[in-house]
Amino acid sequence: MATAVETLGKLERRITISFPLTDVRTEVEKRLKVQARTAKAPGFRPGKVPLKMVAAQYGYQIETEVLNDKVGRAFNDAANENNLRVAGYPKIEPKEAAAEGVLAFDATFEVYPEVVIGDLGGVAIETVKAEVSDAEIDKTIDILRKQRVHFHVKGEAGEHGDGGKDLSAQNGDKVTVDFVGSIDGVEFPGGKADGYAFVLGEGRMLPEFEAATVGLKVGEAKTFPLAFPEDYHGKDVAGKTASFTITLVKLEWAHLPEVDAEFAKSLGVADGDLAKMREDIKVNLEREVAGRVKARNKESVMDALVKVAELDVPKSLIAQDSERLAQMTRQDMAQRGMNIKDVPFPPELFAEKAERRVRLGLILSQLVGDNKLQATAEQVKAQVEDFAQSYEDPREVLKYYYSDRQRLGEVEALVLEENVVNYVLGLSKVTSKAVAFDELMGSNAQA
Fold first, then answer.
1. β-bridge mates for residue 116, sequence order
2. Total domain count for the chain?
3. Residues 392-421: what's their mean pLDDT?
């Protein structure tokens, strides 16, 4: 039996559930007898253990199961009878002031809110667009060349030349140095190394260190002061000024591969056709640009929906999603090989992000239900096929998704979001802004 629903707040409700104690005892005895059929104990054959011994061993566990089953069933029945959409899980607490021979529990819970979405026709949304030009293709080719760089000793003739007449260290050169540093005349841990190699201009070393290295020739040395930043990772030297002496022991110049047929073949173009190589690069860049544009525009739509929709967000759902985000973060860090054994992951750190995720989930659910924006089987298939285009064997990608309902569900969620985005953009006041390729590629929009 359940009492009438009490309203405790905007979303919080309470129901008192009660049932006779005899019902619990009857069910416990019934389950104990079933347990006794297979119970084992020293000195007794299986199924011949006295019921009192079975009750002593399994009674508490069975009683707990019976109570959980009865309370859960009674709560679900009460929620259905009152047409309640329960958000999260109820908090069940024993009710002390119960009648004799009756067990009573208070079930406190939240319900899903009413979601009121404002006039989408009056919403202004700015979308972005970007194009892939020859300049972006050239820049990508330069990056690919640098990824395949080879270093050769300066001044030594080889199949690629000798690196020029200037035998001093310059930006782009790979230098190998011996160095020793001291503070107030005393060497410090980590301040000395022999045969240390780095490429000038990549920023691996502090600016003063690189500046002192530029211009040196093999065998030359230089002493210079170096001020460590206040936030330097080495706490013992952070904020202090050291005296360093460096000696250049090896100097190599960078040889970038020529953009020729062999270079094209190294990128997977079997016949070495440079025009085909550029076209492949363009297709890949356009696919990446399309993904970034879609993400940026989706974010703009989601921001607009958050502003135009009115609803109260259930705290229980925020708490659940905060826990989920904390667990996901822990798993991700562990997979990256980070030692997180003693690292705390308080869910409160994720509450703001969780609140937005839950809020958007409720808004999207309302829009989808009201406007029939569910993902169709054809849309899901098209999305999976689009994913498959960038892989060597598209059939394996199709099999990967369609063999796992959870994976397919993730694709359905993406399609559903895209349906919502297109629906909102179709109603709102949209302006489009062209963004530079570099700006777009430097962004990481996420809804």
1. 310
2. 3
3. 91
